[in-house]
Amino acid sequence: MTPSFRFLSRPILAALLLAGAALAAQDKDKPKFDGDIQKYWTDACSRCHGANGSGRDASGRQLPDAGFDFTDSRKANKKKDAEWLKSILDGKDKMPAYKGLLTEADASRMITEILRKFAARR
Ligand code: HEC
Questions:
Q1: 0.85 exceeded by the pTM?
Q2: Which of 31, 83, 98, 114 could form a disulfide with 102 if both were Cys (CB 3.0 to 4.6 A apart)?
C-alpha cells in the first residue's frame, strides 16, 4: 500500500462503515412484509411505537421515537385514515417511509386491523 493510498483509505473506510451502519439500521425498521400484519407491526413498528401502540415499552417507559399514542382514542379518532396512510407510505419526520415494502392495501390493513384497534381496546 502506498502512503497516499493509506491516507485515503481511512476516510473511505469510515464512510463505508457509516453506510453499513445506516443500511443495518434501515433493515431493522424495514423488514420484508410476508402478509402477516400483526407480525409486521411487531417486527417493524413496535420498536418505536410500542407493542401495544402506546409508545411505551413493556415496563411503561416512554419510548424515545414514539411520536404518537395510538391508544389515546380521543386523539386517534381525530386522525383520518388517509392521513395515516400517507404517514405510513411516505414517512413523517422520524417515521420511516414504507412505500415499496407495503402496498396501499397493506397499509390500509395496518390501520384497520392494528392501529384503530389500539384505540378501541382502551
Ligand atoms: C424509527 C421509529 C419509527 C418506526 C420504526 C415507525 N414509526 Fe410510525 N412514527 C414515528 C414517529 C416519530 C412518528 C411521529 C411523526 C410526527 O408526527 O412528527 C410516527 C408517526 C406515525 C403515524 C402517524 C401518527 C399521527 O397521526 O401523527 C402512523 C400512522 C405511524 N407512525 C405508523 C407506523 C407503522 C404502521 C409503522 C410500521 C410499519 C411505523 N409507524 C414505524 C416513528 C416510527
A1: no
A2: 98
Label residue 104 exposed, middle or buried (CB < 10 Å: 0-12, 13-18, 19+): exposed
Q: Which atom of ligand 1 is nearest to the CA of 110?
A: 35
pLDDT tens digits in sequence order for the chain, 122 residues long:
555 656 656 655 566 555 656 555 556 778 999 999 999 999 999 999 999 999 999 999 999 999 899 999 999 999 999 999 999 999 999 999 999 999 999 999 999 999 999 987 65
Residues 57 and 54: their CA atoms lie apart, in Å, by: 8
CATH number of 31-121: 1.10.760.10
User: Nearest Cα to 86, choosing from 108, 116, 69?
Assistant: 108
- 107: cell is 397499509
80 close to ligand 1 (CB < 6 Angstrom): no
Query: 48, 62, 78, 114: which to mutate for ligand 1, most atoms within 8 A of CB?
Result: 48
